[in-house]
Write the structure tokens for this entry.
Amino acid sequence: MKKIYVIDTSVLVHDPHAPEKFEENDIVIPITVIEELDGLKRGAGSVSYASREALRVIDGLRSKGNLSSNVTTPGGGSLRIALKEDHAHGPGGKQLSPDDKIIKTALDLKQASNGTAVVVVSKDTAVRIKSEAQGVEAQDYKHDKTTAAREYGSVTGPEDPRAQAILSVRYQMEGSTIFRRWGKDNQIAIKRQRAVSGILPRNTDQECAIDALMAGDIQVLALTGRAGTGKTLLALAAGLYQREKGHYEQVLVARPVVPMGQDLGFLPGDVEEKLRPWMQPIFDNLDVIVGTPQEKKDDRHVFKYRSSNYLVESDAVHIEPLTYIRGRSLPARYMIIDEAQNLRPLDVKTILTRAGEGTKVVFTGDLDQIDTPYLDSDSNGLAYLISRFINEETFCYLNLTKSARSALAEKAAELL
């Protein structure tokens, strides 16, 4: 049955093309949402970019009619901008917040809808709670929600149907042999207990992760798992090893610095000094690699990194704020995007469209630890990437389940 959806600002910042994705239903955007987007559009961050893009999408619909009445959307529904002068103040002349103005618009629509369901769509939990408290149905934005990350990513047994359900790279164990499979019938036995940059795998999950990190025909890799499973350490070790062998020009590491794309201007110092507190986990992992003895074979010289700082100073490892990655072209890089669960789907698209020829992109993250407002385990950029690439033969998704940090860390992850 046709519904009227009232969209708030958080939805359009999350997905600027949301107005095109409500099929044959009617969309109402309160004027306060346009005002909020106008206030957010200035700047270089991802939120500013999304706000500008959302305004462009809405402006593009003006060619089909007047936005004060109903204009046709690509899905066969309609969109209009709701303007209400009496929404500025509530009872007793109290100034209404933008959220309250959006809910007031939905209440007015419900009263005049002649039985048509009116739904507030928001990524903001507080808006959804307040809407339903005032008698208006509310829901999260559902278009990019996915459960694929829960269904796949495990090392399966020989009879597991999940190994046949997808075409992307997956791992299957038969006896003591681990096979890498891709497509419908392709498979190869992987090398077990393979060390990279002196780091040895501690469990089957890590053996498969090292194989995927080293495989040249896997262009995009998603590694998920709770803290201590070795995602970032293995990615850095594999990247450094392959750079030393000449497969890549540089290991580029990036992670979301501040939720919702804010910049680092409030911190003192240059870019490197600003980044250091946020990137310290990367340096901690580099210190582990630097401090790990590497095996010497056939009396050949084994390159030993002097320090984690040397890796950065020599440009073997480059740390890049995600805020400034838009517009760049990055060929022949081993890109590691850490804490990727804090990205929006739009951010993931931005990152992957920067990859040039010969670049491999590794996303690492814990889908149960979301720090960014308006995201959850089913709607963040990492989960979205997995759902969209799950049938691409150059993509691999692995979920690491066993902690390798320490017995204490594993026990804490289980109990706390």
